[in-house]
Amino acid sequence: MKIIDKKDIRALSKEELQFFFRQHGFPSFKGDQVYQWLWQKGFHDFDLMTNLSLNHRNLLKKYFEIKHINIDLQQRSLDGTIKNAVKLFDNFIIESVLIPTSKRTTACVSSQVGCSLDCTFCATASLKRMRNLNPDEIYDQVVAMDKQSRLYHNRPLSNIVFMGMGEPLMNYNNVMVAIEKIIDSEGLAMSPKRIILSTSGVPKMIRKMADDKVRFGLAVSLHSARQEIRETIMPFAKKFKLDDLIEALEYWYAFTKKKITFEYVVWNEINDLKEDIDALVRLCKRIPSKVNIIQYNPIDNASFKEAPQSVIDSYIEALSRSKIKVTYRRSRGVDIDAACGQLANKLDKKEKTF
Fold first, then answer.
1. d(CA 223, CA 242)
2. Phi–psi pair at 293, nearest 5 degrees
3. Exposure check for the chain: N or C terminus, fewer CB within 10 A?
């Protein structure tokens, strides 16, 4: 008996699903129905696709599988933040975070197992990049957190940020496919205005996003507008120079007319001088942007210390004086290592809650 090497069905387009059914003597609209079950309804079990006959479902099971994610562990913070340890089909673990506020619930999504870059202040950077996530693995994180939002907060997911594990622009094609599924009317039908992609700064790929006419927002993990400082805390910046990044962001704005958000942590004795503040102000005057100053979240084996509030206030005053929008964001989920920069799979199995 010939053993059929099953494919992951979510690697097929709608047109390929239609063709599959025609090949087997069935009408092509059956492919449309399967596509809807997979992407609009987020189902992972052929047997639950109730508008398909038993013959159709058995045919699918013969040729295909669905390599879906599973929430292996869930932790809930005192502030309501939920961190998920997400098990992939090959048993790798990633993390995703649902962040609630009074007005919205935001899904913080991962794009890689580990990370390609080497930011010294980020726990994820200590993990070796094992592989990129597939589009369906990214998509499944969003579906799972939408369910959590409805369960715990009685409302659907309102926003998505690609600020989890990994550098999204180092997994460009898969991330773009996932976002298309998320915003597609035959997928989750979320507005692209509610999606932010955060990058550490890969100039070539920022230009490509502009050329591809993406409709979502862009954030840049900046942390210094001085090349010599930036490359000490983000060593990959020796390759991706600040000048090249600035030119790419100017290109982005020229094509999209969308302001960039600069994410910025202020550390003691690293970027706490007046010249650091002045450099950031000059950069923001050059590129239409806003600044999100983020509370630093300590990680293991790192000597970083957040600057005094007086220094943060100096940043805020200088930016505000130059008519640059600035906010100071206090972290959520710190007690469960779910805050920005803390995702590193440090989960205690004893804390398992569902």
1. 11
2. -80, 125
3. N
E strands, the chain, where?
7-8, 64-65, 70-76, 82-87, 93-100, 105-108, 112-113, 131-132, 159-162, 195-199, 217-221, 260-264, 289-294, 326-329
7-65, CATH topology level: DNA polymerase; domain 1 (1.10.150)
Q: Give the pLDDT confidence score for residue 353 in this predicted structure.
A: 32
Whole-number Å distance between alpha carbons of 284 and 184: 33
Level-2 CATH architecture, domain 70-351: Alpha-Beta Barrel (3.20)
| H or E segment to which residue 60 belongs | helix 54-63
Domain positions in the chain: 7-65, 70-351
pLDDT digits (tens, 9 = 90+) for 217-253: 999 999 999 999 999 999 999 999 999 999 999 999 9
pLDDT digits (tens, 9 = 90+) for 116-143: 888 888 877 777 789 999 999 999 999 9
DSSP conformation letters of 13-51: -HHHHHHHHHHTTS-THHHHHHHIIIIIS----GGG-TT
Cβ atoms of 276 and 317 within 8 Å: the answer is no
CA 63 to chain centre: 31
Three-state SS at 135: helix
Convert the pLDDT of each residue in 37-56 to its tens digit.
Answer: 999 999 999 999 999 999 99
Q: Which residues are tagged catalytic?
A: 95, 340
Whole-angstrom distance, CA of residue 264 vs CA of residue 281: 12
Q: What is the pTM of this model?
A: 0.90
Cβ neighbors of 208 (< 8 A, separation 6 or more) are 172
User: Which has more pLDDT, 329 or 275?
Assistant: 275
